[in-house]
Design brief:
33% of the residues lie in helices and 27% in strands. The chain contains 13 helices and 18 strands. It is of the alpha/beta class and 430 residues long. The mean pLDDT is 95. Strands 7, 8, 9, 10, 11, 12, 13, 14, 15, 16, 17 and 18 form a twelve-stranded mixed beta sheet that branches. Strand 1, helix 1 and strand 2 form a beta-alpha-beta unit. The protein binds NADPH dihydro-nicotinamide-adenine-dinucleotide phosphate and L-homoserine.
Length: 430
């Protein structure tokens, strides 16, 4: 029996997936059962990197999800609508779905998985996090016997590529972003990468799997890399750190999680410090496992096609060796979360901070900074006057572990000091 795919989208990931499926020699033999039955796109006349029969291509995506011949819908158009609507329609029509769309899953997961369970179909999302890295199935299956306490990841290829090249070549942010777009790493709207939203979508998905509950995406604290300057990269380097956009989900008490995305100073000896370019890595810590790190290419056509095709393979196996139509959803493949995890506000986070100040070059400024931080209970690890920018002195402060709310309050007051010109950076330290 052939398995008929309806693929929505033939861009970077769609093209990579079709290329992989058309060239199945040496891959899992079940892939030979795949028939690329329909492919939906926006512009039918666009030149494509793959050859498909003319009758396979269409701009009518609704017709694909409503076609009774189609077994599996592979959603690779991205964005929220019409992706959400098409996924829901496919599910209601009894089709399994494979998607790489973290934006739609992190925001509409509840609606999508509830509908999937009601219709006894699976929504597979391996490609939604970490590009080619298998991390979704491991979290659902092999690692789920552990009590996970922290998931820390570099989960956005575009920003890691930008930060790496800013660090190693001193390149400008804009020129490197253009390269990431050309290489097919960036989202259609790259602000989702640069401002951290893509990483926040991904950590919402990982947190949900690791901590066994739904995550309200709106509650995920999200900061991107626009504020990271070459100056901070250089200071971080001198202090023994590299700057990475980290996505972190951690259990901070018996009831609360902290789920957040922000540029972070990572000690050079930490395993995530050496993840460069478009590579992603996800460090999972749990009990009794200890630490395990997943590493691999986090974006790009071939890597993501591997993840998409692995989900297709899983579904082919189920369709081929299917149990009765009324069999319940397999809890290791489907989603059975009912409740929302409680997420603590970022003000309650306890972490170390790096702050850079531009001040008038006057005696006593460092003393005043130290006194003010002290009044808010913020203990300092180091304070250094590092040099001058024009006429202004540059002072870099690194704190001990302190409450974020206390640091922010201290900075509010420091901003009002006559000697303070500006506070160009405030970054967290891992
Ligand atoms: P692209 O922009 O390269 O491709 C999108 C495809 O969808 C295009 O073929 C486009 O048609 C089609 N499309 C978009 N909107 C519509 C619509 N309304 N109706 C019909 N067709 C439509 O995106 P990517 O391949 O890069 O990304 C696809 C998904 O994969 C996204 O969810 C993304 O987040 C995710 N992803 C991407 C990765 C990457 O490295 N690029 C990695 C992991 C996940 P046309 O070609 O005619 O314009
Ligand atoms: N734009 C995403 C990234 C694609 O750069 O990581 C992979 O999800």
């Amino acid at each position: 029996m052939g398995i008929k795919l309806g693929i929505l989208g033939l861009g970077t990931v769609g093209t990579g997936t079709v290329q992989l499926l058309q060239d199945h020699v040496g891959r899992h033999p079940l892939l030979q059962l795949v028939e690329i039955y329909r492919v939906g796109v926006k512009s039918i006349d666009k030149p494509r990197g793959v050859t498909l029969p003319k009758e396979v291509m269409t701009t009518d995506l609704e017709a694909i999800v409503n076609d009774p011949e189609v077994d599996i819908i592979v959603e690779l158009i991205g964005g929220l609508e019409p992706a959400r609507e098409l996924i829901l329609k496919a599910i209601q029509n009894g089709k399994h779905v494979v998607t790489a769309n973290k934006a739609v899953i992190s925001r509409f997961g509840t609606e999508i998985f509830t509908t999937a369970n009601q219709n006894r179909v699976y929504v597979m999302l391996e490609a939604s996090v970490g590009g080619g890295i298998p991390v979704i199935q491991p979290l659902k299956q092999s690692l789920s016997v552990n009590r996970i306490h922290t998931v820390t990841g570099i989960v956005n290829g575009t920003t890691n590529y930008i930060l790496t090249r800013m660090q190693t070549e001193g390149s400008s942010f804009e020129s490197v972003l253009a390269d990431a777009q050309r290489l097919g790493y960036a989202e259609a709207d790259p602000t989702a990468d640069v401002d951290g939203a893509d990483a926040a979508d991904k950590i919402s998905i990982l947190a949900s799997l690791a901590f066994g509950g739904r995550i309200n995406r709106e509650e995920v604290n999200c900061e991107g890399i626009r504020q990271v300057s070459k100056t901070d990269i250089t200071y971080a380097d001198k202090l023994g750190f590299v700057i990475k956009l980290l996505a972190i989900a951690e259990k901070i008490s018996s009831s609360f999680l902290s789920v957040r995305v922000h540029p972070t100073l990572v000690p050079k000896a930490h395993p995530l410090a050496n993840i460069n370019g478009v590579y992603n890595a996800i460090l999972v810590e749990g009990d009794p496992l200890g630490q395990v790190m997943f590493f691999g290419p986090g974006a790009g056509a071939g890597a993501t096609a591997s993840a998409v095709s692995s989900d297709i393979l899983n579904l082919i196996a189920r369709l081929q060796y299917q149990q009765a139509d009324d069999a319940p959803i397999d809890p290791l493949l489907g989603c059975s979360h009912q409740d929302y995890c409680q997420i603590a506000p970022i003000s309650q986070l306890t972490t170390r901070f790096y702050a850079r100040f531009l001040t008038k070059d006057q005696p006593g400024v460092i003393g005043k900074l130290g006194t003010c931080f002290g009044e808010y209970g913020v203990s300092l690890e180091s304070v250094v006057q590092t040099g001058f920018q024009d006429e202004l002195a540059e002072i870099v402060v690194v704190t001990h572990d302190v409450k974020e709310g206390d640091v922010k309050q201290a900075l509010e007051e420091i901003r009002t000091f006559e000697a303070i010109d500006s506070i160009p950076s405030l970054l967290r330290v891992l």
